[in-house]
UniProtKB/TrEMBL annotation:
<dbReference type="GO" id="GO:0042597">
    <property type="term" value="C:periplasmic space"/>
</dbReference>
<dbReference type="InterPro" id="IPR010980">
    <property type="entry name" value="Cyt_c/b562"/>
</dbReference>
<feature type="signal peptide">
    <location>
        <begin position="1"/>
        <end position="24"/>
    </location>
</feature>
<keyword id="KW-0732">Signal</keyword>
<dbReference type="Pfam" id="PF01322">
    <property type="entry name" value="Cytochrom_C_2"/>
</dbReference>
<protein>
    <submittedName>
        <fullName>Cytochrome c</fullName>
    </submittedName>
</protein>
<dbReference type="InterPro" id="IPR012127">
    <property type="entry name" value="Cyt_c_prime"/>
</dbReference>
<dbReference type="GO" id="GO:0022900">
    <property type="term" value="P:electron transport chain"/>
</dbReference>
<dbReference type="InterPro" id="IPR002321">
    <property type="entry name" value="Cyt_c_II"/>
</dbReference>
<keyword id="KW-0813">Transport</keyword>
<keyword id="KW-0249">Electron transport</keyword>
<keyword id="KW-0408">Iron</keyword>
<feature type="binding site" description="axial binding residue">
    <location>
        <position position="147"/>
    </location>
    <ligand>
        <name>heme c</name>
    </ligand>
</feature>
<feature type="binding site" description="covalent">
    <location>
        <position position="143"/>
    </location>
    <ligand>
        <name>heme c</name>
    </ligand>
</feature>
<keyword id="KW-0349">Heme</keyword>
<dbReference type="GO" id="GO:0020037">
    <property type="term" value="F:heme binding"/>
</dbReference>
<dbReference type="GO" id="GO:0009055">
    <property type="term" value="F:electron transfer activity"/>
</dbReference>
Length: 153
């Protein structure tokens, strides 16, 4: 294969990897629902470990905070592909109809969350608990705004 073709193939596969979440395909709605719930569950677990430090329920461990923030920031792009058309049922879900009927708003909230967890990741890297607290509060608020609107109790 000529160099140009190799370079093109490499760029094409890199582009595919980067666009994976948006292009993710699921065999059935149940898989989609489980996928988004799994990603959000894992984010909650790692976000909660930072929360414990921020709220004084666990000692502040800068390295652990950083590792947890890295996981949250890495996972934050994933859940949204699992909210595709027709995935409002097929497995137990608390997602409200608004996720689909107000999809632009839902997407806006998901983008806000991704921006806030990127800031959380940056704050964790500073090794300063006050920075972590501020960023954690903003990220938790982004979680809550969307949950209040689109997650049933
Ligand atoms: C968490 C978690 C959420 C958010 C939300 C923030 O730790 O699992 O869903 O924070 O409770 O208000």
């Amino acid at each position: 294969m000529p160099f140009k073709a190799i370079a093109f193939a490499a760029a094409a596969s890199a582009a595919m990897l980067l666009s994976l979440p948006a292009a993710a395909q699921f065999a059935k709605p149940e898989d989609s629902i489980k996928y988004r719930q799994s990603a959000l569950f894992m984010m909650g677990q790692h976000f909660g470990r930072i929360g414990a430090m921020v709220n004084g329920k666990a000692p502040y461990d800068a390295k652990a905070a950083q590792a947890n923030a890295d996981v949250v920031a890495s996972l934050a792009s994933l859940p949204w592909a699992g909210f595709g058309p027709g995935t409002d049922k097929g497995a137990p879900t608390k997602a409200k109809p608004g996720v689909w009927s107000e999809h632009a708003k839902f997407t806006e909230y998901s983008e806000k969350l991704q921006a806030e967890v990127a800031k959380l990741d940056a704050a964790a890297k500073t090794g300063n608990l006050d920075n972590l607290k501020t960023a954690f509060g903003a990220a938790a608020n982004a979680c809550k705004t969307c949950h209040d609107a689109y997650r049933a109790r």
